[in-house]
Amino acid sequence: MRWEDNSDPSLPASKLENLKVIKDGKVSFEAFLSQEYMTVLGGMVVLSDGIPTEHKPGIVNTAIFTSARKGVITPKSIAKEIKRQENSYLKKPLNTFSLVSSLSISRFETLPAIRINGCSITFLPALHKKYVIERQDIERRASQWLYRKPPVNYINVVATVKSRSVEEAANRALDQIDLIRGIWNLRHTSSMRMSSGRIKPVNTVLLGPLHTIHLPSKKLATETYWYQQNYHDEVSALRLGNKKEKTLYFTKNVRKRLNGHPYRLIVEESIRRYARALDYPDLDASFLKLWSVLELLTNTLKSSYKVTIQRASFTFGETYFHRQVLNNLRSYRNASVHSGSEPTGQTESFLYQLKRYVEQLIVFHLFSGIRFSDIASAASFLDMEPDVSMLREQRKMISAAIKYRS
């Protein structure tokens, strides 16, 4: 583990130390504020890769109480206990788990199995009887949260992974499903629409509402289940028809580009976040999440909006026009975030405009990013002057400088 950049864990640690009470070998804290200090400390912790985020609160709290029992609560003592727990978790044996869910693709489609990043994904018109029996009680319990009827025309998905816990299995399986889903949405989501009545999510390929984790025997691995909080309702299931071969070819081509990509993890994460951003029936929420993907793709999470706009516009022909469009989108984004403005009738149009820039950048990184060593280098390329005549002039100057220095 490590502490977040620019954080100071010594402050909440010292406050917890002052509130600490040990009686008969048991640790407690005097004030209600201790929970706030624990939460603040937890927010400063960055766990090692491979540790599920669901484990973080328990790991941090255990580390605090253990370091309190052993001596003084300090960032060093807490970090030591967290690292001990991390090592213990990472030494656990890998077991096979399967996540069962569904996608808004017609269940009558015949799709080949996909193996990606250690995850095997199969698509089924109907679930095995054992899965159906095991999920019955969970479906009944989950119905109070879903509020909508479960889909009947979606294709079933079984994603199998090896992991150390059911939480890790769920995260890994959903990550790979969302990666494939993002690729398919790049291919099949419309470039524009004008909605009336009830608003639907932008994505064509959506996750079904309920996910369960199973053992190789198909029995439930846990009574815990995962569900889509933003589940809207069953949408029209995608029928690929004669588009299936082109979809599979596109998927194969994207995956080929990802293999060996110098900053593969970032490109994959951008595709996942692109897919997740467009799952919401709340288009304003989709817009804000998609803007963060734009910042990821332009490597401007800590830069000004001017740099974001400059880099995002570089991949388009009429660069200066697109800078105006992006600046308009930035104004909408700021109004939504800072003033709490309600979505307007133009929200859908703005979202689709932003979607175009995000998709263009994903394609840029997939097919042109392989020439750069990392995303920072690719972003520097996007900083270049878009005017070709000026680039040629710069090339002459650079050649002259190289000759002179040589």
Q: What would you say this structure looks like, in words?
A:
- The protein is α+β, with helices and mostly antiparallel strands.
- Helices cover 53% and strands 12% of the residues.
- The protein contains 14 helices and 10 strands.
- The protein has a 6-stranded antiparallel sheet with strand order 6-7-8-5-9-10, sandwiched between helices. It has a two-stranded antiparallel sheet with strand order 1-4. The protein has a two-stranded antiparallel sheet with strand order 2-3.
- Helix 10 runs antiparallel to helix 11.
- It is globular, with a radius of gyration of 25 Å.
- The model has no long low-confidence stretch (mean pLDDT 93).
Number of strands: 10
Strand order of the largest sheet: 6-7-8-5-9-10
Alpha carbon gap, first and last residue: 47 Å
SSE pattern, N- to C-terminal: EHEEHEHHEEEHEHEEHHHHHHHH
Q: Based on helices, strands and strand pairing, what is the structural class? A: alpha+beta
Write down the overall geometry: globular
For the report, how would you describe the main beta sheet? 6 strands, antiparallel
User: What oligomeric state is this?
Assistant: single chain
| Mean model confidence by pLDDT | 93
